[in-house]
Amino acid sequence: MKDFSIKLGFVPTRRLAFNADEARKYKNMIRDKLLSWKIDLVDIDWLNEDGMLYDIQDVEKVYKYFLEKDVDALFLPHCNFGTESAVAKLGKLMNKPLLLWGPRDDAPIGNEIRARDTQCGLFATSKILRRFGVPFTYITNSGIEDSVFEKGFTNFLRAAFVVKAFRNMRIGMISTRPGEFWSVMTNEGELLEKFGIEVIPVALTEIIASARKYKDKNSETLKAVIEDIKGKKIDYSAIGEENLKKIVALKLAMKKWAEEEKLSAIAIQCWMALPDEYGIAPCFANAMLTDEKIPVVCETDIHGAITAVMLQAANMHKEPIFFADLTIRHPEKNNSELLWHCGNFPYSLKAKDSLASIRWHGEVFPGIAHWKLKGGEITVLRFDGDNGSYSLLMGHAHSIEGPQTSGTYLWVEVNDWPLWEERFIRGPYIHHVAGIYGKFAPVLYEACRYIPELRPDAVEPSEEELKRWLRE
């Protein structure tokens, strides 16, 4: 629902005591590399003839310019030793994700003069950034063409996406939590005070009234969604076309509200008030919206919605998340677990060989989707907290085959499930997680540097393994 493109403030720095031509050469090489990656750069070529920051008196000008250009993150490559005071002051003023790196130094030239001393300057700048209380990301001093630079830069950019999503988060809350679900209690005031996360409530009756208008109007938009469902060969014969219209109308009502409120995600009380009053379960409606990258999570789990937003941003919104229960261990594989929910997993993530249908939940109410998700590598995430402390559990898993079950589901395997289980039991987590295809734990770990009072909790890979991956 929001703009998650990233504008990167490109602020090369040098120190006047070193060779100016060498610094300019490396500045241009770095910029050319970033442009070849199609990065949206906001440079400072207007500042001086070098287009570099080396005078602390210029910091205010750059800061104001970047504010006007809505810069989201900073890259301050040291083209020689650099000017640590100017870099640190700009980082403090901007309060944005900041990337610190410099290209590896060449051998001393003919008369044994060193042209840049880049690594030495990086040590100085990192110290002053700490003095200023500025969090930063660091890529190992390396060559422009080295894989560690590309890997570290891509990871930083994704982390900046997560931070931008987190700092602009608005979670829609449809009704209260189900009475039986004490586990999804949240402190709305604390989320606002600590993280700036806004929770936007709406009465269930308002959403239902809006959905009924969509259904009664039988608009072209509603008809188009139904035709799309038919085109995907999703079998809805068990519930009939009238119930399908109700489900689609609910989806349209939620989407309209999300767009009006500029919501990042929605948490809905999916049972029992909604089925009792409107006659359907929202599971397939949730799946359709989540497939459009507006995550809808179950049982009014606000922390779950926050989790979904962060994880979707880690993948730069290229693919939707799925929101799951941790339910049962695999009957035969000790390190495998079932990720499941009644029917809210996006259809676009369905396994090709899995039939898709919309059915009744038992014999109580219609709207439950049924299919298996595709295979692949998965990142599992959970944002949660209690007693005033918050943490972000993250880890990688891979899909495996397992017994068929109802609803939407995926069996996954990890290296040490008892370790995962212990982390969830000891908390502050509950049984709800978000999943996405790909390995994004390094991104989420790095993003936590820029979110005060959020502790990264890495399971597999561990924190030390993530640090090693980032510097190798």
Secondary-structure map:
Blueprint: E1 8-10, H1 20-36, E2 41-42, H2 59-68, E3 73-77, H3 84-94, E4 98-101, H4 118-131, E5 137-138, H5 147-167, E6 170-174, H6 188-195, E7 198-202, H7 204-217, H8 220-231, H9 240-261, E8 265-268, H10 273-278, H11 283-291, E9 296-297, H12 302-314, E10 322-329, E11 336-341, E12 357-361, E13 365-372, E14 377-386, E15 389-400, E16 408-413, H13 417-426, E17 432-437, H14 441-447, E18 454-458, H15 463-471
Parallel strand pairs: 1-2, 1-3, 3-4, 4-5, 6-7, 6-8, 8-9, 13-16, 15-18
Antiparallel strand pairs: 10-11, 10-17, 11-16, 12-13, 14-15, 14-17, 15-16
List its salient traits.
472 residues; alpha/beta; L-fucose Isomerase, Chain A, domain 3; six-stranded antiparallel barrel; 15 helices; 39% helix
What does this structure look like?
By secondary structure, the chain is of the alpha/beta class. It has helices at 20-36, 59-68, 84-94, 118-131, 147-167, 188-195, 204-217, 220-231, 240-261, 273-278, 283-291, 302-314, 417-426, 441-447, 463-471; strands at residues 8-10, 41-42, 73-77, 98-101, 137-138, 170-174, 198-202, 265-268, 296-297, 322-329, 336-341, 357-361, 365-372, 377-386, 389-400, 408-413, 432-437, 454-458. The mean pLDDT is 95.
Specify the helix fraction band.
25-40%
Q: Mean pLDDT, nearest integer? A: 95
Spatial separation of the terminal alpha carbons = 36 Å
Strand order, largest beta sheet: 10-11-16-15-14-17
Based on the coordinates given, report the CATH architecture of the largest domain. Answer: Alpha-Beta Barrel
